[in-house]
């Protein structure tokens, strides 16, 4: 439930098209809807500006599909991440309008129409980091932010990065996905004047320790405009980038 | 050298108060000034919006003081972090107008006057986290951002946090400093709709491993608007928070 | 063998319904029964108040089923944890009265009837933590403790937790299962005056390191009434919670 | 402020010895008192049964002394842990009735008189663990719990432990402090039917990694009645042990 | 090639049954036989008292079978460890007299007949540790040492260990296999006057970190007669235990 | 594109066999060719002396095959590492002249003919390290360096290493692949006067932690001519060894 | 109390020189003597063959001196390890016959006279490891074992080790102290047929992680006759080496 | 003893200026000279091309000075690293011609005169890394290699690095010292065609873990011409760089 849908609900009451009793019942679902195994936080958008997103890992396909269905029924855009094939199938069976993005392992449902607000760039150091970059891109686009994808611009061939420098300049925030040594955020951070959100990926030889090396590298960035999210957490990076882009584009 | 001082320089050339030769000489110092042991990045502000800051750790007092002096001579505001007593003394001997903040271990010199742009809140979980919170606060204030300090609002006494909820609502970005389990950013992140920058501090019993526990906690935050900086890195958190606040306040 | 069954045995001797020779033989099984690969600690209940429980991991289905059968033959309630499909099948073939709880990966056999003593609450931060929470619940219920399940009450939506606060108040001990940053035990700990037993779960993105982040978070809890068990060890948490609930309900 | 002092306050209002205005003022300090650097949680005892305790590490002596003084002024018993010489001096200068326990690094002030409720045993594996065991003992005694100290009963000389077995039997909860391999809690856990709270200590050769080895050992205990607190956290162990002992002794 | 077979070879030369040329050729194989992918150290037994053993992990079945065959051809007893089903099949196809021990994942070939020398005991803390204990037992028996197996004698039920104390007393060396907290070697070490070789096993809940917790526990043993081998390395423990038992039994 | 092919291109322009327009188009592909998911760095050889190599891990077979095809089309030798069966199939379908080396998990395509320059030796400690050693060997040979393979010369049978000492003496650089304790590079380093490049492999029992133990051992080598690459990174070791061998053989 | 002194005591009773009452009193001190902070295990020698040794770290000088004095009073040889200057002073003030070995940080008191039994060699990889090697040597000598010291024979100059090979051959057990990569035990293990006890030392550059690298290296030794003790634990290595040497020399 | 001095010695014998007996005595010192605590490897230069260097850490000033003196007496150039003030004083008292470089913590003695052979560049990311860079520079210069120092060229201000690109082009090998995220070697590696030796430094905020983050970053470099040495090991980097530069300059 967004501020807009809340205002519409209250306007409907004012205009008489919704009885106070019916409105009450709908609002009574707040602060959350209890499914037994999950409590859906419908008014999260009201409180934090963006809707709750379903993290499907270690949930059963049935649990995820049920939560997805309830959130879809509330009329908002819905996103599920870390979705495997079985879970995607279960969601699409229940909500046919949803779209599965297999590389990004995400299922998205768009039900609202909003103007895009703000602009972010998403970089990947190598082709191997693309799945995480796409998770970020799908998330940001569902949240109505314009995304410029700049993939395979790692630091071992610096000219690739320097040739897209102009495209960096126009972004309100930049997401950088990199595995191995995770050096790209530092270099990007030194080139721009906007926040850089670094996403370590679990790409690399043995001593990458499944992304821990990149994570440590990014936390130690000598560029002070770099902040970091969890390994392979493209979703989280997009979430914060969207908030910054919206702020830069004016208002929540 | 900020965009403003660059414009003033070019205007001075236009108006004839500065000869092209003299302007050239000043610009020739770009892209950096080489002290042998350090290359000062004077045009960083031009490129990234905020001036370079001196990280004094493992530099000798003489090295730090020399870099500070050169940056001061360029007319900008100057900040040195991780300053011990001996280094502070060396800086203040060379630049008496600078001010030493012992709790924050920072030396700041204000030479410009700007309107404050944007507003951030800085929270600490406990009194023991205050030194890091102050490093963030001193940094943000030198960068012309309004700071609300909310200290000792840790999650074990939730009413303390809930009672300052209104003060959170007006901030463009929020910095949360916490040691031990580092839980505060997640709770704050669930209450607000702006980016939360989490700073793990090296406060806690043995298994805090000098802040690693808090760091891991914050990286794993279930609130998606949380990004993380290095342990005890109040400066870095402030840097990004200032960029966000400026964007929200309109323009760089 | 519980204290009660021991008293019954001795009473049977006194009353003549059991010959001293037969009683001796039964007691001779103490202190343990040797199966070659395992030594069953039948008098553990006598010594510690609760019967031994079978940890099935890395045991063959045959080994687990054999131990289960012997313990069942001794007349006590029996519990096996970390049971996979093959092992469950082997146990149920041997002891048809046993019940398999697939989500909790546990097989339980109830043979005694006791009044429930004491009351605990079991919380999970998210739906993904439910398997571990259920392992705890099944264990506590077999040990005759009343369980209130409160699932998906994580700290990112604090109102969900605050709305169940009354249900926390009546528990003698509280188990909190959480992955990711593991912050929920600290928040719960600050709200109640009973021991909180924290169970880190292996839920989360890469830098959760399979539950290590949550474990560290919980060990560093700023709420002093929090103690911690191993990652995903719902059984151990239940065991201690049951002991506390029994003590609070009066006597062992 | 404990429940008792609250009841006394209200009784004083009822009896007329305290004006409603004065009572209001005292209650108005709730939920906390803001010192700028710290927010004292005076009604914590009301909420959780035991008063807040001051963790002095990384606080300045002045900060700790000020918090101690305010809490003393509220009439309750006060405890500060992790107190160094300078801080102890500062506290005692402000509150001469307080007592410094140098081995336990704690300062305690007793202002109330209560009957002792419940009984715990505190074991140490070696003489080198004694400082942490004493922190636990001082804490529990200030919280009105009877303490039996059983020091230097480590597993390499099992007869030392077995000879105190009777003293274990009467405790409502047992705290076990051990460094090195941290094996003692498992052995004790197998002997008793009450909760065992394990405190890893930072005692040992290099690969103890400052207590991490003992911590891991205790978390992996094969005795299911063992829960664990942070390295060297005698205070936290005592806090939970006291709650259990009180429950066993009847009522909060 | 053992000392004995070398003496036989030289005696054969002396007696004329072997020509010096033929003897030279056989000795020329020393110091090793080069298979391209492997260099078999035939005279290892001569140098170190026990023959080389094949570590099959990450070798192809063909490579392992070829090495096994060559070593068998040299007339000595042969042992391969970490043998999976496919590799066992390949070995037995080539050397039908060899025996596969599936629980121990070992293939052994006995070709010599020696009197057993010395006596060791092998303990396991739980049934789950049995595979590793059996790897040790198979190894020691092939090396002509008498083995007493004492399984499932973990510290949580101390009476099980104490009841086999007499059997410990007669061993020249003791191997203790334990996962979880790895406490058993310390307790055993305190009861006996012979070397205890501790083998951590990868048995346990999440924070056992695949045996690292047990490993650290054993390295930190407070019993000074405990030394440690790698996680799940039953073979290595047996090797050293055999050397000690032989020394105690007199001579190499 | 190597320096040689660049010179040929310019010579072709000079001689009239290539129009300036055509040459321009070919050079215009520089600095890289953008496939959307990848930016191929064709002029890397020009800049660094050796062509870019495809790291196939976490790339789809289609992505790897497409990059391989484009690089083959540019006329240079092409190498892909970390190639699984499916990817090898996809590459060979597109570029039938390429050769798959299954043990080394590499696909190589030779299109140029160059004199071999320089000589390296590649050692493995055991047969289990051979896959990594072969990755290094295939790489070096494609880069026109002579390779001497010396496998299974680990330190537990020192005579095996000492017997190949002469073969070490003639190499310009030495690669040493070893798992377990990773001791071989130190011993080799003490015997020779050329750089030793150490490759830790993920071979060993539990506490090898998938090669981390060998990695740490090699980083701590007491032989100062040892430098280290990532775990199982035979390719990287070969790359640097080739550069050294070329330098020693005269010029780049 | 050793077996010998026990026999003497009983003989004294038999001969009438000691009254049964007096003998009883002395034996009554068994199993241990309780000093409050410590329980001295006087009959440890009876049980395990060697007397208890005092680990002085984290004990106060007074505590250590008191324990030392009591053990000295019992007539046995006494050893304290990890002794700093202040503690040494306190011991020597109480027991002037004791001798302080500053490099080994040990205080030893010899009161018995025994024939030396068995022979061990102690190797150090470098001069920097000497303090730990000396702790082992002092321990073994007090326990009546002959020690051959072979220092600075690290693997980077293999000829140094090979030149002392004869001295290795006569030892019943070998202790190898090494920091950095900890490779020496593997090389030594391949040369000899007796147990090698490896002691990692905290010597090395940053990534030695205070001895953890050497520890891991030794645990992963490819020589199967290597077992390992804790970092810098020369005492523990000596203890086990002495037991082996005694066994080899015939009897306990 | 270098090859040259060996040739001179033999020539002296040939010419009669040295008696065979005297020559024998001097050669008899080979393979090493035994000081009791150290065995000096005088013929290391003969075997490996460069003389042994003294690692002074954990050696006493007396031990280091004695080793230094003996090596000086042999006529070669001598270097001691990790030298503190007291050790420097002890060396200079014994060998007044030696020079102490306090920033590099090294003492060097030059006794030979050789032409410089080869050329390396040494880069540091920041001023704080300078001590380690200087250790490398002092080492390389003593070994007769030309050094270009390029300090404070970290990736956050890329133009600083790009402006020295020409100076990189002429080096035979490049050493890159960097702390924090350790990204500089990857960027440099992508710009040049010679080996890059990466030295992680212990510079950075908490999660640098004393250089471990930089170390991991460098091991995971996406530039394949990067190899890595231990944290803060400027000496080791220089040693290998010198070997490469000599090879490139022609011959050992």
Give your account of this protein's structure.
- The structure is a homooctamer of 252-residue chains.
- The first copy, chain A, has helices spanning 3-15, 20-28, 44-48, 61-73, 85-94, 130-142, 158-162, 165-169, 184-191, 212-219, 234-249, and strands at residues 33-34, 39-40, 54-55, 78-81, 99-101, 106-109, 119-124, 146-150, 173-178, 196-200, 226-228.
- A 5-stranded parallel β-sheet of chain A has the order 8-7-9-10-11, with helices on both faces. A 4-stranded mixed β-sheet of chain A has the order 3-4-6-5, sandwiched between helices.
- In chain A, 42% of the residues lie in helices and 17% in strands.
- Chain A starts with a helix and ends with a helix.
- Chain A is built from 11 helices and 11 strands.
- In chain A, helix 4 packs parallel to helix 5 (85-94) and helix 6 (130-142) packs across helix 11.
- The first copy, chain A, is of the alpha/beta class and 252 residues long.
- Chain A binds chain B through residues 47-50, 53, 172, 189-195, 197, 215, 219-220, 224-230, 235-237, 239-240, 243-244, 247-248, 250, 252, and chain B through 47-50, 53, 172, 189-195, 197, 215, 219-220, 224-230, 235-237, 239-240, 243-244, 247-248, 250, 252.
């Amino acid at each position: 439930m967004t501020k807009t849908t809340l205002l519409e609900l209250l306007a409907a009451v004012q205009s008489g098209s919704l009885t106070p009793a019916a409105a009450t019942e709908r609002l009574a679902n707040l602060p959350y809807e209890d499914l037994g195994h999950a409590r859906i936080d419908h008014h999260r958008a009201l409180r934090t500006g963006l809707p709750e997103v379903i993290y499907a890992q270690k949930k059963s396909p049935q649990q995820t599909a049920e939560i997805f269905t309830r959130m879809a029924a509330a009329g908002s855009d819905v996103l599920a991440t870390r979705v495997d094939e079985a879970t995607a199938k279960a969601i699409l069976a229940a909500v046919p309008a949803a779209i599965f993005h297999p590389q990004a392992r995400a299922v998205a449902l768009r039900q609202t129409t909003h103007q895009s607000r703000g602009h972010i760039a998403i970089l990947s150091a190598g082709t191997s980091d693309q799945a995480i970059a796409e998770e970020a891109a799908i998330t940001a686009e569902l949240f109505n932010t314009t995304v410029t994808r700049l993939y395979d611009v790692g630091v071992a061939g610096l000219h690739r990065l320097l040739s897209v420098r102009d495209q960096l300049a126009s972004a309100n925030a930049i997401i950088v996905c990199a595995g191995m040594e995770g050096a790209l955020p530092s270099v990007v951070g030194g080139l721009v004047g906007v926040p850089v959100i670094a996403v370590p990926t679990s790409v690399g030889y043995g001593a990458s320790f499944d992304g821990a090396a990149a994570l440590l590298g990014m936390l130690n960035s000598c560029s002070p405009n770099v902040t970091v999210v969890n390994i392979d957490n493209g979703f989280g990076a997009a979430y914060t980038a969207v908030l910054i882009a919206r702020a830069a584009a004016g208002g929540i």
